[in-house]
Design brief:
27% of the residues lie in helices and 36% in strands. By secondary structure, it is an alpha+beta fold. The protein has a single domain, classed as Roll (ph1033 like fold), CATH 3.10.590. The chain has a six-stranded mixed sheet. A hairpin with a 5-residue loop joins strand 3 and strand 4. The mean pLDDT is 96.
Length: 137
């Protein structure tokens, strides 16, 4: 199993909408590196759901339930999406400021490449953020 982080602006599509929808296609990614990350996702992989711009915090965990397929929102180009299913809300959201200040999270892609919307997370960083958020999954 691999670990990821996906970012969404909560005023456009937030955690509560993900939970209400259950499973949702992760569409609209228009960055080549993020697209390649979507292509690398496999069924059963997990991802942090991160609220960008407003909140700037990890708020939940989703699971990949369908691997990359053509993004239906793309009018042209080779863009893909994956289907994500809500797994759990973190008992304590983990703020970007806390992650930046934590030496155990040095090298986290979210800190190095803050504008990338889909990024890998190492197993060590994954487990550390889960612990910070009070989630044992």
């Amino acid at each position: 199993m691999a670990f990821w982080l996906v970012k969404s602006e909560p005023d456009a599509f937030g955690w509560d909408q993900q939970v209400a929808n259950g499973t949702e296609p992760w569409t609209g990614v228009r960055n080549y590196m993020a697209r390649n990350n979507l292509r690398a996702m496999r069924i059963g992989d997990r991802a942090f759901f991160y609220h960008s711009n407003i909140g700037r915090e990890v708020v939940g965990v989703v699971e990949v339930v369908r691997e990359a397929y053509p993004d239906p929102t793309a009018s042209e180009g080779d863009w893909v999406c994956v289907d994500l299913r809500a797994l759990a809300k973190l008992p304590r959201p983990v703020a970007l400021t806390a992650m930046k200040a934590d030496p155990a999270l040095e090298g986290l892609a979210l800190i190095r490449q803050s504008r990338l919307s889909v990024m890998p997370v190492s197993a060590g960083h994954w487990h550390h953020i889960c612990a910070l958020g009070g989630w044992g999954g």
